[in-house]
Amino acid sequence: MKTMNNTELKIKGYQILSQYLGLVEMEKFISLIQQDKFDYTIWRKSLLNQESVEDISKAAMNERKFSLRKEL
């Protein structure tokens, strides 16, 4: 997969947020992120420290199974 430029990344991000949150919740999420002195990298590391790699893998596999069922 090629690296996206900033514009492509923003568009893809908006599409994903809109798809999973809906327009109103997407706007609320973006507003919250912009308000907070939020460091995504630190937040993400703290999440990973709470779960084992095995737990994260199982959750990802379960999510994938659920997504595949929805497509059928």
3D architecture notes:
There is one protein chain. The chain is 82% helix and 0% strand. By secondary structure, it is mainly alpha-helical. It has four helices and no strands. The model has no long low-confidence stretch (mean pLDDT 82). Helix 1 (6-21) packs across helix 2 (23-35). The longest helix is centred in the last third of the chain and has 19 residues, at 53-71.
Give the end-to-end Cα distance, rounded to a whole number of Å. Answer: 26 Å
SSE class: mainly alpha
The oligomeric status of these chains comes to: single chain
Low-confidence regions? none
Radius of gyration equals 15 Å
Shape: globular
Q: How much of the polypeptide forms β-strand, as a percent range?
A: under 5%
Number of strands: 0
Helix content: over 70%
Largest sheet: none
Number of helices: 4
| Average pLDDT figure | 82
Query: What's the SSE pattern?
Result: HHHH
Topology:
Elements: H1 6-21, H2 23-35, H3 40-50, H4 53-71
Short description:
This protein is mainly α and 72 residues long. The chain has helices spanning 6-21, 23-35, 40-50, 53-71. The chain is globular and about 35 Å long.
Q: Which short descriptors sum up this protein?
A:
single chain; 72 residues; mainly alpha; 4 helices; globular
